[in-house]
């Protein structure tokens, strides 16, 4: 098989995971962004740090692992539970089919490259609440990412099974996600795809962020992109919907949506149709149940302020550069 364009970025020796919406387990969320530069070509994440300080091993091969059961299937491949033969350590292995990536176009390849690069950078300085990447390699037909196995499933499934969480439970989870986002932002990266499906729950009860295919690096000069929005927009920040330049504040907005969903069992913005949901996000004040405590209401409303400069988290990220505009 011919090498994939850009796949030299997938391992240090020339060697990844999905973009939003491709690895869901019956999810209602779909892909949020499709981006290009001003020339209409896919713009890869440029991560010097990711290539300069890596703990990711690109010399591994599929025969180094014993393959167990299927964890999940998606548009471009599958995730399986594996054991490394030399250490007997269990991992999650994402297997992406090159033919499907190519068939769906440059954006799919870009998301695979982006996820590998960002996870590689995160793994050089491991964080307890972010999934680490251990191996990245390829064969003629497939790309492989070997990551931490987080055995408790995702937050979306837990919400479906357990219903709304208690406020102390939400406070605990929100605190771990805040620490993870601060770590991501400290690397000048926006996560851009925070939602229950992308938060894994460990058997010890702690959370880990996963799926960095939609991430974007912040730069000193704003990167102008064309953003096409598709799918259910209930977690999309208003500045994205209105075509404004955006920064890491969109992650704090999506955290507000996630906290609201953990507290009430449903998204804060979920009108009868997409157009109504967009209107609510861009112009309406969020409505919350009266039985929530004042501190819980204050937290959600603080994260869901329309003006990103006034949003909770803005002081932490005040030096972040805006990276997008769909109106310029």
Could you explain the architecture of this structure?
Residues 1-50 are annotated as: Disordered. This is Protein kinase domain-containing protein. This protein is of the alpha+beta class and 328 residues long. The protein has two domains: 7-148, Phosphorylase Kinase, domain 1; 155-310, Transferase(Phosphotransferase) domain 1 (Transferase(Phosphotransferase), domain 1). Helices cover 30% and strands 16% of the residues. It has nine helices and eleven strands. It has a five-stranded antiparallel β-sheet. A hairpin with a 3-residue loop joins strand 5 and strand 6. Helix 5 runs antiparallel to helix 7 (249-264) and helix 7 runs antiparallel to helix 9. Mean pLDDT is 80; it is low at 1-53, 222-228 and 319-323.
Q: Give the radius of gyration.
A: 19 Å
Overall pLDDT level: 80
Order of helices and strands: EHEEEHHEEHHEEEEEHHHH
Distance between the termini: 39 Å
Give me the side-by-side strand order of the main sheet: 2-3-4-6-5
Broad shape: globular
Which regions are unreliable across 5 or more consecutive residues at pLDDT < 50? 1-53, 222-228, 319-323
Tally of strands: 11
Question: Structural class from helices and strands?
Answer: alpha+beta
- The structural domain count equals 2
CATH topology of the largest domain, what is it called?
Answer: Transferase(Phosphotransferase), domain 1
State the CATH superfamily name of the largest domain. Transferase(Phosphotransferase) domain 1
What is the annotated CATH architecture of the largest domain? Answer: Orthogonal Bundle
Q: Identify the CATH class of the largest domain.
A: Mainly Alpha
**Strand portion:** 15-25%
Share in helix: 25-40%
> What is the number of helices?
9
Query: Main β-sheet: number of strands, strand sense, barrel status?
Result: 5 strands, antiparallel
């Amino acid at each position: 098989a011919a090498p994939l364009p850009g796949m030299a970025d997938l391992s240090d020796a020339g060697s990844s995971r999905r973009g939003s919406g491709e690895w869901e387990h019956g999810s209602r969320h779909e892909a949020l962004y499709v981006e290009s530069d001003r020339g209409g070509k896919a713009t890869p994440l440029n991560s010097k740090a990711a290539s300069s300080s890596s703990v990711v091993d690109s010399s591994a091969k599929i025969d180094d692992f014993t393959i167990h059961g299927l964890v999940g299937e998606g548009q471009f491949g599958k995730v399986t539970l594996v054991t490394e033969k030399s250490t007997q350590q269990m991992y999650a292995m994402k297997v992406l089919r090159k033919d499907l990536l190519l068939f769906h176009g440059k954006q799919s390849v870009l998301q695979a490259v982006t996820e590998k690069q960002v996870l590689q950078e995160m793994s050089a300085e491991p964080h307890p609440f972010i999934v680490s990447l251990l191996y990245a390699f390829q064969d003629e037909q497939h790309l492989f990412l070997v990551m931490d196995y987080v055995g408790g499933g995702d937050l979306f499934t837990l919400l479906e099974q357990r219903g709304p969480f208690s406020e102390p439970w939400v406070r605990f989870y929100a605190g771990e996600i805040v620490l993870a986002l601060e770590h991501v932002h400290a690397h000048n990266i926006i996560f851009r795809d925070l939602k229950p499906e992308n938060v894994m729950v460990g058997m010890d009860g702690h959370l880990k962020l996963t799926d960095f295919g939609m991430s974007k690096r912040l730069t000193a000069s704003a990167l102008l992109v064309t953003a096409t929005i598709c799918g259910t927009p209930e977690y999309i920040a208003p500045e994205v919907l209105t075509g404004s330049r955006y920064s890491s504040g969109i992650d704090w907005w999506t955290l507000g949506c996630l906290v609201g969903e953990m507290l009430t069992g449903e998204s804060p913005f979920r009108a009868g149709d997409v157009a109504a949901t967009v209107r609510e996000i861009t112009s309406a004040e969020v409505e919350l149940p009266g039985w929530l405590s004042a501190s819980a209401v204050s937290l959600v409303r603080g994260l869901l302020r329309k003006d990103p400069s006034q949003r909770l988290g803005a002081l932490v990220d005040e030096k972040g550069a805006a990276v997008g505009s769909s109106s310029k």
